[in-house]
TrEMBL record:
InterPro entries (UniProt xref): DctP_fam (IPR018389), TRAP_DctP (IPR004682), TRAP_DctP_sf (IPR038404)
Family stated for the protein in its record: Belongs to the bacterial solute-binding protein 7 family.
Official protein name in the record: DctP family TRAP transporter solute-binding subunit
Keywords: Signal, Transport
Protein backbone atom coordinates (compact mmCIF):
# COMPACT_ATOMS: atom_id res chain seq x y z
CA UNK A 1 0.00 0.00 0.00
CA UNK A 2 2.81 2.36 0.97
CA UNK A 3 4.70 1.59 -2.25
CA UNK A 4 1.54 2.15 -4.28
CA UNK A 5 0.90 5.50 -2.58
CA UNK A 6 4.52 6.56 -3.11
CA UNK A 7 4.37 5.62 -6.78
CA UNK A 8 1.09 7.47 -7.21
CA UNK A 9 2.52 10.60 -5.59
CA UNK A 10 5.63 10.41 -7.76
CA UNK A 11 3.57 10.05 -10.92
CA UNK A 12 1.40 12.97 -9.89
CA UNK A 13 4.46 15.09 -9.22
CA UNK A 14 5.93 14.28 -12.63
CA UNK A 15 2.63 15.00 -14.34
CA UNK A 16 2.34 18.33 -12.55
CA UNK A 17 5.88 19.26 -13.55
CA UNK A 18 5.22 18.35 -17.16
CA UNK A 19 1.98 20.35 -17.12
CA UNK A 20 3.74 23.38 -15.65
CA UNK A 21 6.47 23.13 -18.28
CA UNK A 22 3.91 22.88 -21.05
CA UNK A 23 2.18 25.99 -19.73
CA UNK A 24 5.35 28.10 -19.96
CA UNK A 25 6.75 29.17 -23.32
CA UNK A 26 10.38 30.31 -23.41
CA UNK A 27 10.84 32.97 -26.12
CA UNK A 28 14.46 33.82 -27.00
CA UNK A 29 16.22 36.19 -29.40
CA UNK A 30 19.54 38.04 -29.70
CA UNK A 31 18.33 41.66 -29.90
CA UNK A 32 18.02 44.14 -27.00
CA UNK A 33 14.79 44.12 -25.03
CA UNK A 34 13.97 47.80 -25.62
CA UNK A 35 10.90 47.81 -27.85
CA UNK A 36 11.58 51.33 -29.15
CA UNK A 37 14.87 50.38 -30.78
CA UNK A 38 14.70 46.60 -31.17
CA UNK A 39 12.44 44.87 -33.68
CA UNK A 40 12.81 41.48 -31.98
CA UNK A 41 12.48 43.09 -28.56
CA UNK A 42 9.20 44.69 -29.60
CA UNK A 43 7.97 41.46 -31.18
CA UNK A 44 8.73 39.46 -28.04
CA UNK A 45 6.93 41.84 -25.73
CA UNK A 46 3.86 42.03 -27.96
CA UNK A 47 3.77 38.22 -28.24
CA UNK A 48 4.03 37.81 -24.46
CA UNK A 49 1.31 40.36 -23.69
CA UNK A 50 -1.15 38.96 -26.22
CA UNK A 51 -0.67 35.28 -25.33
CA UNK A 52 -0.88 35.88 -21.60
CA UNK A 53 -3.98 38.06 -22.05
CA UNK A 54 -5.81 35.47 -24.17
CA UNK A 55 -4.71 32.18 -22.56
CA UNK A 56 -3.47 30.64 -19.31
CA UNK A 57 0.00 30.28 -20.84
CA UNK A 58 3.01 32.08 -19.41
CA UNK A 59 5.65 33.51 -21.76
CA UNK A 60 9.20 34.02 -20.47
CA UNK A 61 11.37 36.37 -22.56
CA UNK A 62 15.10 35.80 -22.98
CA UNK A 63 16.46 38.73 -25.03
CA UNK A 64 19.94 39.96 -25.92
CA UNK A 65 21.42 36.52 -26.55
CA UNK A 66 21.01 35.50 -22.91
CA UNK A 67 20.49 31.89 -24.05
CA UNK A 68 23.13 32.03 -26.78
CA UNK A 69 23.62 33.18 -30.35
CA UNK A 70 21.15 32.42 -33.13
CA UNK A 71 22.63 29.00 -33.85
CA UNK A 72 22.29 28.00 -30.19
CA UNK A 73 18.74 29.35 -30.08
CA UNK A 74 17.70 27.28 -33.10
CA UNK A 75 19.31 24.18 -31.62
CA UNK A 76 17.58 24.88 -28.31
CA UNK A 77 14.23 25.19 -30.09
CA UNK A 78 14.84 21.90 -31.85
CA UNK A 79 15.54 20.03 -28.62
CA UNK A 80 12.72 21.79 -26.77
CA UNK A 81 14.77 23.60 -24.12
CA UNK A 82 13.60 26.78 -25.84
CA UNK A 83 9.99 26.96 -27.01
CA UNK A 84 10.23 29.85 -29.46
CA UNK A 85 13.19 31.45 -31.20
CA UNK A 86 13.10 34.58 -33.33
CA UNK A 87 16.11 34.42 -35.65
CA UNK A 88 17.29 35.64 -39.03
CA UNK A 89 20.15 34.50 -41.30
CA UNK A 90 21.37 31.58 -39.18
CA UNK A 91 18.21 29.63 -40.00
CA UNK A 92 19.63 28.93 -43.47
CA UNK A 93 22.20 26.66 -41.81
CA UNK A 94 19.31 24.41 -40.71
CA UNK A 95 16.94 24.82 -43.65
CA UNK A 96 19.08 25.59 -46.70
CA UNK A 97 16.22 26.85 -48.86
CA UNK A 98 15.93 29.89 -46.57
CA UNK A 99 19.15 31.23 -48.13
CA UNK A 100 17.32 32.21 -51.32
CA UNK A 101 15.73 35.19 -49.55
CA UNK A 102 19.24 36.67 -49.24
CA UNK A 103 19.84 36.74 -52.99
CA UNK A 104 20.90 40.35 -53.60
CA UNK A 105 18.51 42.86 -55.14
CA UNK A 106 15.62 40.39 -55.07
CA UNK A 107 13.06 42.51 -53.20
CA UNK A 108 12.46 45.98 -54.69
CA UNK A 109 10.62 47.22 -51.59
CA UNK A 110 9.48 46.18 -48.14
CA UNK A 111 5.79 45.87 -49.15
CA UNK A 112 6.79 43.43 -51.90
CA UNK A 113 8.82 41.41 -49.39
CA UNK A 114 5.88 41.34 -46.97
CA UNK A 115 3.51 40.22 -49.73
CA UNK A 116 5.87 37.40 -50.72
CA UNK A 117 6.71 36.15 -47.24
CA UNK A 118 3.12 36.36 -45.97
CA UNK A 119 1.74 34.72 -49.11
CA UNK A 120 1.98 31.35 -50.83
CA UNK A 121 5.77 31.41 -51.12
CA UNK A 122 6.29 32.06 -47.40
CA UNK A 123 3.74 29.40 -46.46
CA UNK A 124 5.39 26.82 -48.72
CA UNK A 125 8.86 27.68 -47.38
CA UNK A 126 7.56 27.36 -43.82
CA UNK A 127 6.13 23.90 -44.52
CA UNK A 128 9.35 22.80 -46.20
CA UNK A 129 11.45 23.97 -43.26
CA UNK A 130 9.07 22.33 -40.78
CA UNK A 131 9.83 18.99 -42.43
CA UNK A 132 13.55 19.75 -42.45
CA UNK A 133 13.91 21.04 -38.88
CA UNK A 134 10.88 20.19 -36.76
CA UNK A 135 10.35 23.92 -36.24
CA UNK A 136 7.06 25.55 -37.17
CA UNK A 137 7.22 29.06 -38.63
CA UNK A 138 4.56 31.07 -36.83
CA UNK A 139 5.23 34.35 -38.66
CA UNK A 140 7.83 36.44 -40.43
CA UNK A 141 9.39 39.70 -39.31
CA UNK A 142 12.32 41.60 -40.77
CA UNK A 143 15.81 42.79 -40.00
CA UNK A 144 15.47 45.28 -42.85
CA UNK A 145 17.34 46.23 -45.98
CA UNK A 146 21.12 46.24 -45.87
CA UNK A 147 23.19 49.08 -47.37
CA UNK A 148 26.85 49.86 -48.04
CA UNK A 149 28.88 52.49 -46.21
CA UNK A 150 32.48 53.49 -46.84
CA UNK A 151 35.11 56.11 -46.04
CA UNK A 152 36.54 56.67 -49.53
CA UNK A 153 33.92 57.95 -51.99
CA UNK A 154 30.23 58.04 -52.87
CA UNK A 155 29.00 54.87 -54.59
CA UNK A 156 26.58 55.29 -57.47
CA UNK A 157 27.46 52.15 -59.46
CA UNK A 158 29.41 48.88 -59.23
CA UNK A 159 32.35 50.68 -60.88
CA UNK A 160 32.59 52.93 -57.81
CA UNK A 161 33.16 49.85 -55.63
CA UNK A 162 36.23 48.66 -57.50
CA UNK A 163 39.33 48.53 -55.33
CA UNK A 164 37.44 48.97 -52.05
CA UNK A 165 37.52 46.49 -49.18
CA UNK A 166 34.23 45.75 -47.42
CA UNK A 167 33.65 43.89 -44.20
CA UNK A 168 31.02 41.19 -44.70
CA UNK A 169 29.65 38.35 -42.62
CA UNK A 170 31.61 35.14 -43.02
CA UNK A 171 28.90 33.76 -45.31
CA UNK A 172 29.84 32.71 -48.86
CA UNK A 173 26.72 34.32 -50.32
CA UNK A 174 27.83 37.76 -49.11
CA UNK A 175 31.36 37.22 -50.33
CA UNK A 176 30.08 36.25 -53.78
CA UNK A 177 27.89 39.36 -53.83
CA UNK A 178 30.70 41.80 -52.98
CA UNK A 179 33.09 40.16 -55.45
CA UNK A 180 30.41 40.37 -58.14
CA UNK A 181 30.16 44.10 -57.49
CA UNK A 182 33.90 44.45 -58.05
CA UNK A 183 35.00 45.01 -54.45
CA UNK A 184 37.03 42.86 -52.06
CA UNK A 185 35.12 41.10 -49.25
CA UNK A 186 36.74 40.74 -45.84
CA UNK A 187 35.22 38.31 -43.34
CA UNK A 188 35.65 40.01 -39.97
CA UNK A 189 34.00 39.08 -36.66
CA UNK A 190 31.30 41.51 -35.57
CA UNK A 191 33.12 42.63 -32.43
CA UNK A 192 36.15 43.67 -34.48
CA UNK A 193 34.26 45.83 -37.01
CA UNK A 194 34.65 49.25 -35.32
CA UNK A 195 38.42 48.78 -35.01
CA UNK A 196 38.68 47.54 -38.60
CA UNK A 197 36.82 50.63 -39.83
CA UNK A 198 38.75 53.05 -37.62
CA UNK A 199 42.17 51.70 -38.61
CA UNK A 200 41.45 51.33 -42.30
CA UNK A 201 41.74 47.54 -42.40
CA UNK A 202 38.56 47.81 -44.46
CA UNK A 203 37.09 50.78 -46.31
CA UNK A 204 33.48 49.97 -45.61
CA UNK A 205 30.82 47.58 -44.38
CA UNK A 206 27.16 46.73 -45.00
CA UNK A 207 24.23 46.67 -42.59
CA UNK A 208 20.69 48.00 -42.05
CA UNK A 209 20.45 51.73 -41.27
CA UNK A 210 19.44 51.08 -37.67
CA UNK A 211 22.62 49.07 -37.09
CA UNK A 212 24.78 51.67 -38.82
CA UNK A 213 23.41 54.45 -36.63
CA UNK A 214 23.13 52.40 -33.44
CA UNK A 215 26.81 51.45 -33.62
CA UNK A 216 28.01 54.98 -34.45
CA UNK A 217 29.57 53.87 -37.73
CA UNK A 218 29.22 57.48 -38.92
CA UNK A 219 32.30 58.18 -36.81
CA UNK A 220 34.36 56.09 -39.25
CA UNK A 221 32.32 56.22 -42.47
CA UNK A 222 31.55 59.26 -44.62
CA UNK A 223 29.31 57.76 -47.29
CA UNK A 224 26.09 55.74 -47.22
CA UNK A 225 24.59 54.17 -50.34
CA UNK A 226 20.94 53.16 -49.99
CA UNK A 227 21.16 50.29 -52.45
CA UNK A 228 18.98 47.82 -50.48
CA UNK A 229 21.11 44.88 -51.60
CA UNK A 230 19.68 42.30 -49.18
CA UNK A 231 16.35 42.23 -47.34
CA UNK A 232 16.80 40.38 -44.06
CA UNK A 233 13.93 38.13 -42.94
CA UNK A 234 13.19 37.29 -39.32
CA UNK A 235 11.72 33.83 -38.66
CA UNK A 236 9.50 33.36 -35.60
CA UNK A 237 9.87 29.63 -34.89
CA UNK A 238 8.29 27.27 -32.36
CA UNK A 239 9.20 23.69 -31.53
CA UNK A 240 6.40 21.77 -33.28
CA UNK A 241 6.04 19.15 -30.54
CA UNK A 242 5.44 21.94 -28.04
CA UNK A 243 2.99 23.59 -30.42
CA UNK A 244 1.09 20.34 -30.91
CA UNK A 245 0.88 19.87 -27.12
CA UNK A 246 -1.19 23.07 -26.83
CA UNK A 247 -4.97 23.09 -26.98
CA UNK A 248 -6.63 24.32 -30.16
CA UNK A 249 -7.54 27.57 -28.40
CA UNK A 250 -3.97 28.07 -27.25
CA UNK A 251 -2.59 27.30 -30.71
CA UNK A 252 -4.92 29.86 -32.28
CA UNK A 253 -3.89 32.51 -29.76
CA UNK A 254 -0.20 31.78 -30.30
CA UNK A 255 -0.57 32.06 -34.08
CA UNK A 256 -2.47 35.35 -33.81
CA UNK A 257 0.08 36.79 -31.41
CA UNK A 258 2.95 35.71 -33.64
CA UNK A 259 1.53 37.48 -36.69
CA UNK A 260 1.02 40.68 -34.69
CA UNK A 261 4.52 40.29 -33.24
CA UNK A 262 6.10 39.94 -36.68
CA UNK A 263 4.15 42.94 -37.96
CA UNK A 264 5.20 44.99 -34.94
CA UNK A 265 8.83 44.08 -35.49
CA UNK A 266 8.56 45.22 -39.09
CA UNK A 267 7.01 48.53 -38.03
CA UNK A 268 9.74 49.22 -35.46
CA UNK A 269 12.42 48.38 -38.02
CA UNK A 270 10.85 50.64 -40.65
CA UNK A 271 10.49 53.54 -38.21
CA UNK A 272 14.07 53.25 -36.98
CA UNK A 273 15.40 52.98 -40.53
CA UNK A 274 13.57 56.11 -41.69
CA UNK A 275 14.59 58.03 -38.58
CA UNK A 276 18.13 56.66 -38.84
CA UNK A 277 18.68 58.05 -42.34
CA UNK A 278 17.86 61.56 -41.11
CA UNK A 279 20.11 61.13 -38.09
CA UNK A 280 23.03 59.85 -40.17
CA UNK A 281 22.68 62.85 -42.45
CA UNK A 282 22.73 65.13 -39.41
CA UNK A 283 25.94 63.41 -38.32
CA UNK A 284 27.54 64.41 -41.61
CA UNK A 285 27.24 61.31 -43.76
CA UNK A 286 26.74 61.89 -47.47
CA UNK A 287 23.79 59.76 -48.55
CA UNK A 288 23.34 58.41 -52.07
CA UNK A 289 20.06 57.01 -53.40
CA UNK A 290 20.81 55.13 -56.65
CA UNK A 291 18.46 55.69 -59.58
CA UNK A 292 16.42 52.85 -61.05
CA UNK A 293 19.01 52.43 -63.80
CA UNK A 294 21.84 52.34 -61.28
CA UNK A 295 19.98 49.77 -59.16
CA UNK A 296 19.60 47.57 -62.23
CA UNK A 297 23.37 47.77 -62.77
CA UNK A 298 23.95 46.61 -59.19
CA UNK A 299 21.49 43.74 -59.66
CA UNK A 300 23.02 42.61 -62.95
CA UNK A 301 26.50 42.53 -61.38
CA UNK A 302 25.70 40.83 -58.07
CA UNK A 303 22.78 38.49 -58.70
CA UNK A 304 24.18 36.02 -61.27
CA UNK A 305 27.24 34.87 -59.26
CA UNK A 306 25.16 34.47 -56.10
CA UNK A 307 22.45 32.51 -57.90
CA UNK A 308 25.06 30.29 -59.54
CA UNK A 309 26.65 29.63 -56.16
CA UNK A 310 23.30 28.82 -54.56
CA UNK A 311 22.22 26.49 -57.37
CA UNK A 312 25.34 24.44 -56.77
CA UNK A 313 24.87 24.48 -53.01
CA UNK A 314 21.16 23.75 -52.91
CA UNK A 315 21.00 20.93 -55.45
CA UNK A 316 17.38 19.77 -55.63
CA UNK A 317 16.34 22.71 -53.44
CA UNK A 318 17.54 25.15 -56.11
CA UNK A 319 13.91 25.27 -57.30
CA UNK A 320 13.32 27.73 -54.47
CA UNK A 321 15.33 30.33 -56.39
CA UNK A 322 12.83 30.25 -59.24
CA UNK A 323 9.84 30.03 -56.92
CA UNK A 324 10.99 33.17 -55.12
CA UNK A 325 11.66 35.02 -58.37
CA UNK A 326 8.17 34.21 -59.60
CA UNK A 327 6.57 35.29 -56.31
CA UNK A 328 8.47 38.60 -56.33
CA UNK A 329 7.42 39.27 -59.93
CA UNK A 330 3.76 38.69 -59.04
CA UNK A 331 3.93 40.84 -55.91
CA UNK A 332 5.78 43.64 -57.70
CA UNK A 333 2.92 43.98 -60.15
CA UNK A 334 0.68 44.99 -57.23
CA UNK A 335 2.99 47.69 -55.83
Amino acid sequence: MKRTLTATLAAATLAAAAHASAQTLRFAHVDPDDWTTSKKGAAGQVFKNMVEAETDLTVELYPAGSLGGETELIEGAQDGTISIAMVSGAYANFCEAVAVTDIPYTFPSAPVAWEVMDGEFGAALAEHCLQETGLRTLAYGETGFRHFTNSVRPIHSPEDMEGLKFRVQTIPLYQEMVEGLGAEPQGIAWGEVPTALATGVVDGQENPVSVIYGNNFYEFQDYLTLDRHVYGVDHLLINDDIFQSLTEEQQAAVKRAAVVAGTTGRAIQQFNSAEGIAKLEEEGMEITQPTAEQMEAFREAAQPPVQAYLRDELGDDAEWIDRLSSAVEDASARF
